[in-house]
Amino acid sequence: TPALTDPQPNAKRQDLQADTVNPGGTLTDNMGHAISDDQNSLKAGALGPTLLEDHFLREKLHHFDHERIPERVVHARGSGAHGYFELTRSLAEYTTAQVLTEVGAQTPTFVRFSTVAGFRGSPDTPRDIRGFAVKFYTPQGIWDLVGNNAPVFFIQDAIKFPDLVHSVKPEPHNEIPQASAAHDTFWDFISLTPESLHTIMWAMSDRAIPRSFDTMEGFGVHTFRLINAEGKVTLVKYHWKPVLGLHSLVWDEAQKIAGKDPDYNRRLMWDTIDAGGTLEWQFGVQLFTEEQAAGWDFDFRDPTKIVPEALVPVEIVGRLVLNRNPDNFFSETEQVAFMPSNIVPGMDFTEDPLLQGRNFSYLDTQFSRLGGPNWQELPINRPLTPPQNNQRDGHMRRTINPGRVSYYPNSLDTGSPTPDPQEGFRSHPVMMSGVKVRERPESFSDHVGQARLFWNSLTPIEREHLCRAFQFELANVETRHVRLAMLDQIERVHPVLASQVAIALGEPPRAGQTAKPGGTQDSAEEMALL
Ligand code: HEM
């Protein structure tokens, strides 16, 4: 394996340059033929009909006709930038992954920020979770940390993802609303999915309307495994902490900006980098063992749960700097393809049923979005370590693999690639046994505790914003029984929250309205808000 010091941040830039064509010289068609006139098609006389013979016209129109590719099924609206990741503290005690062990080495990265629900051309500032996807071009292959700006997710099992997304996307009969969760189908699904309560609290908080990309946090969400040279496992949660601190818009600003400058977040990042500035985050890890986690009242495999920092502090071990705009939006930001299954030796997955499903879904979706099995060859997606294997052919294959041998084992080509039992990726031998069932473990069953923990962590003004967000969202729900079902759900989190929202919606006061809101730090102040 090459030393990590080889791929300095410019390594990916140089790699991309191999495919970069700078404009200049004579105008040609795609086959390199010089063109004499690009303004007039070939006609039978100046007034005559256009001739089918005009191969320049046909090629130009043909290419234009096929310029569009399907947008991402979720996270279609996004903005990207290049940069580097620098490790400041070695995690060699926990992992053999070079990207996390070689202090001072700078690994090239490409990062894409996104909203979840809106179309590719939708505004930057709706209330929504933001995607925070980081591609590391490491010497051991690509590592993708495909995270969000919330540390938890709406559902516990991948089998529910298509339902979640169908509910949040515009309603299928009239394609309304374009980029907002404020509609009946979303809240219907959420009210019937109690496991979503914790993430809904994050989504209704100010965190879901970040001021800029570099004032939001990022989270890997799932717990992953790290494995060290002795084969010892440590569990890990990943964090990005913005150096500028956490800042949000207020809802009124977010709505006005959506009208005045739908590219607000994108433009800010572009202009910052264009002016020579950078965007920067600290990289943090929460490290813990399975023995430690066994004592907790939640499951580390459950993606609707955080590991509270009171239990395991976040340790800062690196930084991420974004400092270069893409040269071409389509070739970089649109064609980039992230996959949570892209991990490197020294890392492994956990049994989190959401992560397990994601590991299928991203590979699968690239096939239709990027047109076949060779999307890994696209310049932005290819690793700095050239792939060596016996995969061949397929639509748009561009690699040229010489020789007659495309299989393993073989005795005819001693130079062909072979597995490396020492350095190659090995799944950690976790002891597994069980009865084949479609069931959720008991350890995944508390949907309220951490939702309440989140509410309790907020300041009064943050609570007020959160109440108002629920009021706005549920006021847009036309079906009364859905509004009432949601009130029932949030009443389980906190009676003050439910009462505030119920009163604003003109619904009867909640039973819990007069109840003492146990566990909050400033309940008198809260009740006064009513
Ligand atoms: C994008 C599936 C959960 C973060 C996507 C895409 C799919 C998908 C199909 C489009 C990818 C593309 O076209 O390139 C799923 C499934 C999930 C799930 C099946 C659950 C079972 C999550 C979670 C997170 C997340 C929990 C955060 C930890 C993202 C991000 C993107 C994305 C950031 C955009 C990547 C980019 O910028 O290109 N997801 N997702 N997803 N997903 Fe998920």
Automatic annotation (TrEMBL):
It is an enzyme of class 1 (oxidoreductase). GO terms for molecular function: catalase activity; heme binding; metal ion binding. Its cofactor is heme. Keywords: Heme, Hydrogen peroxide, Iron, Metal-binding, Oxidoreductase, Peroxidase. Heme binds at R72, R112, F161, R358, Y362, R369. It catalyses: 2 H2O2 = O2 + 2 H2O. The active site is at H75, N148. Decomposes hydrogen peroxide into water and oxygen; serves to protect cells from the toxic effects of hydrogen peroxide. This is Catalase.
